[in-house]
Amino acid sequence: MKTKNLNNNERSRITQLLLEQSNEGKPKYGAMSAVAKQFGVCRKTITDIWNTAKKQHTSGQAINVKSKLKGRSMVTRHKFDNDKLESIDLAKRTTQQELSEGLGVSQSTVCRWVAADLIDSHTNAVKPGLTENNKLARLMYCLSHLQYDKNTKRFVFKDQSNVIHMDEKWFFITKPSQRFYVGKKEKRPHRTVQSKRFIQKVMFMCAVARPKYGPNKEVISDGKMGIWPFVMEVPAKRKSKNRCVGTIETKSIDSITKAVTRDMLINKVLPSIKANWPSNYSKHILIQQDNARPHITNKDADFGRGMKKMGGRLN
Question: Are 99 and 110 in contact (CB under 8 A)?
Fold first, then answer.
C-alpha cells in the first residue's frame, strides 16, 4: 500500500496533538497509535515527526516539522540518435560500456535501447577470403550434385545415399577440468597429467554415410562406418617402474602424413565399408574428403591396388 504524504499543516497539527497528550516530554500510552489512525498513516510516520520535534525542542530550536520532500523531478530521457551511433568506430562498439562512453549516456540507457530493439547485438565471425577461382569451384561443386528429374521436369539435388563423408579430429586424452556426479560417500576421482598445458591428444578418423531405411521404415544401415585412432604399437626402448624393456606400447601418431592416411584408408576404412554397406544399394561409392594436404586423390596407385584386392576399382 502506498504511504500517504502529509502536508505541512497536518504535520503541525500532529505535533500539537502529541504535545497536548504528553506528560514531561513523553506522549501518553496509545497516543501515537490514535493519532496515526486519525490521519491515516503508519505509526512510524508519527514517531518520526515527534522525534524531530523533540530533538529541536531539546536543543532550544524553534519546532519546525515541515516536510523535506521536494517536488517531483522528472528523469531526463535521452533520445536515441542512430546517426551518432553509426559514426562511432566499430572497434569501440564491442561492449555496452564502450558504447555508452561513445554515445555519452549511461550503461542502463544503452541496455534499455538494446531491449527496445533500437540497437542490435550482432556476433561477427571471420569469413574465408574467397578468390574468383574459389567461388567458381564452389559453384561447380554445387552444380555437380544436381540431376534432372524426368517426372517433375525439374533439376533436383541428388540424395547422396552413396556418399561417405570422411574427416579427422583431434581428441585430448582428458580435460583440465571435468565435472563428475558422485555419491556422498564415494571416493573422489584423482586424475594426473605431466603438464596441464600439454595434455596428450590422439587424432581419430571417422567415416559416416546417410542412414538407409527399408520400405517399412526399418533401419537397414545406420550409416556409421566406423571411427579409428591414429596410433601405433612400438616396443619400449627403456626399462622403467611401469614396464619392462621391449613391452609393446600404444602411442599416438603425431605426424599425420599422406602415407599414414593412405594406410588408414586401405586397412581400416575400405574393409569397414565392405562389411557395412547394404548389398541391395549402389556399389558406386564416393568417399568425400576435406581439403587437408595429407589426403590422397582418386588417382593414387596404392589406394587403387587396395581397392582391387577387395574386389573394387577406382573410377
Answer: yes
Domain ranges of the chain: 1-73, 75-124, 158-177+197-309
Please state the rounded mean pLDDT for residues 262-268. Answer: 94
Q: What is the pTM of this model?
A: 0.59
SS3 annotation, 12-79: HHHHHHHHHCEECCEECCCHHHHHHHHHCCCHHHHHHHHHHHHHHHHCCCCCCCCCCCCCCCCCCCCC
What does the block give as the cell for 240? 622403467
Domain 1-73 has CATH 3.90.320: no
Adjacent-strand bridge partners of 170? 203
201-209 and 224-229 beta bridge pairing: antiparallel
Among 268, 270, 199, 197, residue whose Cα is nearest residue 230 = 268
Q: CA nearest 199: which of 165, 167, 239, 171?
A: 171
Instruction: Quick: pLDDT tens for 183-231.
Output: 999 999 999 988 988 999 999 999 999 999 988 989 999 999 999 999 9
**C-alpha cell recorded at residue 214:** 527399408
Q: What is the DSSP letter of 246?
A: T
CA 274 to chain centre: 40
Confidence band of 108 (pLDDT split at 50, 70, 90): very high
Closest CA to 233 of 215, 221, 251, 260: 251
